[in-house]
Amino acid sequence: MRDLSRRRLFSLAAALPAPMALGARGAGARPAFAQGEAPAWPDRALRVIVPVAPGGSLDILGRTVARALTGPLGQPVVVENHTGAGSNIAFDLVARSKPDGLTLLIGSDPLTINPALYSRISFDPVRDFAPIAELVRAPQVLVVKNGLEAKDLREYRRLGQELGGGLTLASQGNGSIGHLGGILLGQALGVLTTHVPYRGGGPAVVDLVAGHIDSLLVTLPAAIEYVREGRIRALAVTGTARSAALPEVPTVAESGYPGFEVVTWQGLLAAAGTPEPILTRLHAETRTAMAKPEVANNLRAQGFDLATGSREEFAQLVRAEAARWPAIVRASGARVD
To answer: Does domain 4-137+265-332 match CATH 3.40.50.720?
Structure first.
């Protein structure tokens, strides 16, 4: 198999114009049910399930989406953080929820990675979920504590080789894209690090700031404010190009490792079986809300790249990722149970 540090890990949906929203807007809007047979929806509060602890990029995105949808849907949209088991607790909760569009998931790569990492999974990422909208994409960023004697990736490699496994590299959790990306980065650099898993990017960044860990590979939005404040130091981002939010930070590829790329996707999903009119409305309202300048500009400033594809394009992405991850996980050597 080709060196995985030189292959693109993610086949992301093409950026196409978002479809026009269907139906009326505002608190009194109704989904476009056939012949008006169904009652008004939603008739009570919605909840957005975030599978990580507060503070990480998924949590930031979940709260942004909840605020943006509360007005157009005419009901409160409440964020709930359900952590544990590599996000499987949250995934199972949504997969088993009533398919009424009132319980939504902010999903990302672990939804399609975990079936290849865990021997006992109670959900299927394709069969048990209805994709609504791919929301954003973001690179990972390698950040280090201020006391670490590494100002760039070359010095990080040298230090890692000197310490011979004594350098700690944390991630959002076992099996997360940060974990797998860290394995691939170590393979590219020829460095052995000690993995430290957390329950989300937020707690990991806090411990990095406190100096409890040496380095962290995490989705950029979870760390960007700490980098800007000078409380941690960014060495490289894992996209094909520098992030507009941190233009001074080079990519891993331009730091001497051409072809290295790890980019995460994050999107909104519901339980399989949710009625099509509800999914259609949620997609339309989400696209409209995410396109508002105050929302879009805020997300871009935090390091996100906004996605604009259709529901079917997002569904194709989920199917493709679910099909390809088993081989990637086996090649990386990552295991959870």
So the answer is: no
